[in-house]
Design brief:
GO terms for molecular function: fructose-bisphosphate aldolase activity. The protein is α/β, with parallel strands linked by helices and about 400 residues long. It is about 45% helix and about 15% strand.
Length: about 400
């Protein structure tokens, strides 16, 4: 740096190599005008038409009183749940279960649900009446989406931490899913809380994975749902959970900027700030709301069009009550805050259905009631005293 300045000023080493010369040398540095060149990185901006398409998809997903249904469980994930119900885990039974959900009363379904995250298998399944399940959703003005990550794998160099695979051929897969009727995607990375985790390695690695995923999806004209799930299956308190949420989200959004992700064309999916399920202190909804909103205020840019919550680590009832408390909380909230629930919407309906075709209407009624409660909670209009 100093040698560059000297060259610009015609100052040789010999003319500034004595103590006596130093004041004069400093004066010349201060008074002489010179320019030091530095490389400027030029970024390729997204085309206006692409931005408009992404915003249009976001607008269809982010509607007051509506949320997302996460129905992207893999066949292996459904195994234990079906086993507990005595239902054989076959492709036909998985299709029948999802058909039961998607064929619920059209007016109510579309009133509470704006989008559904699907598993690859479901995208290409048809109903018993030979109607594509994706078409069944479109008939209800519900936007189909698709889970595109390939699951968790051990993160080498860490202590029992994970990253998520699936970036290989992601663009080709997204292009095909777009052709087949899906308009948004989801990718999940997880972070466990302990005295030593999440590590810097895990946070930085997963932030880059999520950012690369988001960039690829946007290039394929699909809105990415970015899910950095902070797990609550530890013994940590809510203060420790708040610290981790803030650190993970801060690193994530810095990385999203570095990858030039279009923030207005994405959705953030996060866990609420909760104490660990093995912690003896169970925080009330107001404390959960305060810690959750504070963590988001400190880390998530207002440009993000929506934040949706997952229900992991909570009972069905707590997921609804805590969501309502978050929306009632009086702090500054520049983003819509709604739900993207799987089990909190499906648990009771699945148990009611239990593979019995004669129980379809009963199961649908239960599902729609859960969706109604989540809708009210997303507006901060839930009355817990009326029963949940």
């Amino acid at each position: 740096m100093l040698s560059d300045c000297c060259t610009k000023l015609n100052i040789t080493r010999s003319s500034a190599n004595t103590v006596a010369d130093l004041p004069n040398f400093a004066h010349r540095l201060q008074t002489k005008k010179f320019h030091i060149s530095s490389p400027i990185t030029k970024y390729t901006e997204l085309e206006p038409a692409l931005c408009q398409e992404l915003q249009k998809i976001v607008d269809a997903l982010v509607v007051p009183g509506k949320g997302l249904l996460a129905c992207d469980e893999s066949p292996s994930s459904l195994q234990k749940r079906f086993d507990d119900l005595g239902v054989e885990n076959t492709e036909t039974n998985r299709r029948d279960y999802r058909q039961m959900l998607f064929s619920a009363d059209k007016s109510q379904f579309s009133k509470y649900i704006s989008g559904v995250i699907l598993h690859h298998e479901t995208v290409y399944q048809k109903t018993t009446d030979d109607v594509e399940l994706i078409e069944l959703l479109r008939e209800r003005d519900v936007v189909p989406g698709i889970k595109v990550d390939k699951g968790l794998v051990p993160l080498f160099g860490s202590k029992d931490e994970n990253t998520t695979e699936g970036l290989d051929n992601l663009q080709e897969r997204c292009i095909q899913y777009k052709r087949d009727g899906c308009h948004f995607t989801k990718w999940r990375c997880t972070f466990a809380i302990s005295e030593t985790t999440p590590s810097q390695l895990a946070m930085v690695t997963n932030a880059n994975v999520l950012a690369r995923y988001a960039s690829v999806c946007q290039s394929a004209r699909m809105v990415p749902i970015i899910e950095p799930e902070i797990l609550s299956n530890g013994i940590h308190g809510i203060n420790r959970a708040s610290e981790v949420h803030e650190e993970v989200l801060s690193i994530l959004f810095r990385t999203l900027q570095e990858h030039r992700v279009y923030l207005e064309g994405m959705i953030l999916k996060v866990a609420m700030v909760l104490s660990g399920i093995k912690n003896s202190v169970n925080c009330n909804p107001q404390i959960v709301a305060e810690n959750t909103i504070t963590a988001l205020q400190r880390t998530v840019p207002p440009a993000v069009p929506a934040i949706v919550f997952l229900s992991g680590g909570q009972s069905d009832e707590d997921a609804v009550i805590n969501l309502n408390a978050i929306n009632v909380y009086e702090g500054r909230k520049p983003w819509p805050l709604t739900f993207c629930y799987a089990r909190a919407l499906q648990n009771t309906a699945m148990e009611t259905w239990s593979g019995n075709s004669e129980k379809v209407q009963d199961a649908q009624a239960v599902f729609l009631e859960r969706a109604r409660l989540c809708s009210q909670a997303s507006l901060g209009e839930l009355d817990p005293e009326n029963g949940i």
